[in-house]
Amino acid sequence: MARVLVTRRLPDGGLDPLAEHELVGPQPDDRAYSHDQLVALAGEVDAIVSLLSDRIDAEVLAAGAPRLRVVANVAVGYDNVDVDAAHEHGVVVCNTPGVLDETTADLAFALILAAARGTSAAEADLRAGRWPGWGITQYLGRDVHGATLGIVGYGRIGRAVARRGAGFGMTVLHHSRTDTGEPGWYGDLDELLEIADIVSLHVPGGDATHHLIDARRLGLMQPTAVLVNTARGTVVDEAALANALHNGRLFAAGLDVYEREPEVHPKLLDAPNTVLLPHIGSASQATRQRMAQLATSAVATVLDGGTPPNVVSRA
Ligand code: NAP
Ligand code: GLV
User: Fold this and answer.
1) Residue 314 domain-assigned?
2) Catalytic residue among 21, 164, 279, 290
């Protein structure tokens, strides 16, 4: 029997694959472990089941050596885990690819529709009693059907958003570093940003994509354009985005992720035409359960001496 640190409460059934092992955590009130607590606990367990809000950095991984064998992040993104340090200490890192694509794409599309049509501000007016009745010049958004959708990051989730775009009669273009060989690929991100009516981000977080969308690139986008980010907050320079929205340099934004979660840049909170969600891309009951089970199954497999399919390879 191995000892497994489970940092937070998981959806029902999420711990089933670990039934044979001794579990440490989560804390009784489901409070997040502090970084110091993670460092202190890492050396006393064989495995960690972490969430994207846990920082599993070099210090935690060094403290885990030589006992710690596997870290399974209950998320497809793993920018919170120092994969290089894990490899140095012989720790396997796992994530949850594939089981959340459609759910996250649904949410990205919800943001595309909500941001383009300004549904948040319109609903807020109605709820606050500020709606004077139907008006022909009120709440005029941008059409989603027929628009050009630029998908940045054409992997599992980007492709799932592309399918939804095609269903809405959109012209769908995409950017990734590797030529996909498929129609609509743009190797030059700047060119894509210049022509897209709606840009949806689906790249991983981390150093390579930090502020991929910065002030200069926001300046390339059309003033009528909509930016949607369900990737990672660090992909967009939030201060620059807030300025662009306040100055009318961009029509609208739909955000699910933020640079310093759970903080949201104060200028985004009062930016016009901005829909803000609290990182709920994969948050359906079925998908969160699948994610938890995929992560904990991977832990069980590693502890059993096997290699699960969802091991993160070193970049
Ligand atoms: P994926 O299948 O690995 O796709 C990533 C895509 O991004 C690939 O097309 C990749 O192609 C491209 N890419 C990587 N680095 C790039 C760069 N520097 N510049 C341009 N393109 C780059 O990943 P996924 O499963 O679709 O997930 C994508 C991300 O979505 C996750 O990493 C996570 O951060 C985020 N996510 C958020 C939520 C949420 O709740 N909001 C839910 C799930 C996932 P190349 O390598 O060829 O460039
Ligand atoms: C969520 O953000 C994930 O990476 O799964």
Assistant:
1) no
2) 279
**Percent of the chain with pLDDT strictly greater than 70:** 100
Ligand 1 geometric centre to CA of 78 (Å): 11
* pTM confidence score: 0.98
Percentage helix, strand, coil for the chain under 3-state DSSP, each rounded to 5: 35, 15, 50
What are the phi and psi torsion angles at 21 (to 5°)? -110, 160
CATH of the domain at 37: 3.40.50.720
Whose tokens are 């995409």? That residue is: 174
Read off the pLDDT of residues 189-205 as tens digits, 9 standing for 90 and up.
999 999 999 999 999 99
Cα of 201 to ligand 2 centre, how many Å?
13
Residue 254, classed as helix, strand or coil, is strand
The closest residue, in CA terms, to atom 3 on ligand 2 is 75
Count of the separate structural domains present in the chain = 2
- The answer to whether the CB of 287 is under 6 A from ligand 1 is no
Residues 151 and 75 both lie in one domain: no
Range of the domain at 142: 101-276
